[in-house]
Amino acid sequence: MSAVATEVREEIHELPPVNPRGRRWTRFILPVYTVLMIAYLASPIFVMILYGFNDIPGIRPTQTPRFYGFTLSWWRNVFNIQGLPEAVKNSLLIAPISATVSTILGTFFGLAIGRYRFRGMSAVDFVIFLAIAVPEIVLGSSLLSMFIQSGTSLGFRTILLSHIGFSIAFVAVTVRARVQGLDRSLEEAAQDLFATPLVAFVKVTLPMITPAILAGFLLAFVLSLDDFVITNFVAGQTNTFPLWVYGAQRIGIPPQVNVVGTMLFGAGLIAALANVIVHRRRA
After folding, report:
1. How many Cβ atoms from other residues are within 10 Å of residue 81's Cβ?
2. Is the pTM here over 0.85, yes or no?
3. What structural domains does the chain harbor?
């Protein structure tokens, strides 16, 4: 044993020394790359926020690459443009309603396909994947054809139904991923302690899948708020914020659009932070 130990010590001493200089600069590769990617992805948002304060001269100011100076005029007169208040109002009405309904339906759907195995499961998975992967132009044109064939007038109602339809699959996938990772023994233990299935679900299962439900709701809300392609097919005479921006860019986008975008971004950021805080407190 002593001879073997001596040979091992000699081999260790013969190993080449580690280059501290090489390790000194290579350890910065990943942090620098991460910072650059974050800056690249967030740069459009920073530009939008900055140009919401751009003091553009003129009677009818429109977006320009030149930054003239800071002003709060666009924030004070954010809705003093024809059509913009109604478009923002429609978007802020449709998004929470569609997100709520699709979250309720998608949660039960995700629970069913995540917990149970039944005949036709492969077909259900294919339909869910198809609802997520199908191009929006195909989904929008098919929804338009369905509404026309059924005699449904295009407008607020058709936008709402369309947004609920394409959001359910996203919520179901999010909830199913959470359900499949749950420990069923916890719910079974609650039932062994004389809890009814409903009580066991409310007291045990529901708190554990709440983060996935909140994540699904936020995802459905964002998908509804920024959807353009499908909404453009089924909107009729109803305007949403993305549709209004698309129409306004033909004659020049006013700086108030940056202000509204900043407000929506801030609201989304607050909602995301609230979701993280709730999740950490539950953990």
Report:
1. 16
2. no
3. 82-253 (1.10.3720.10)
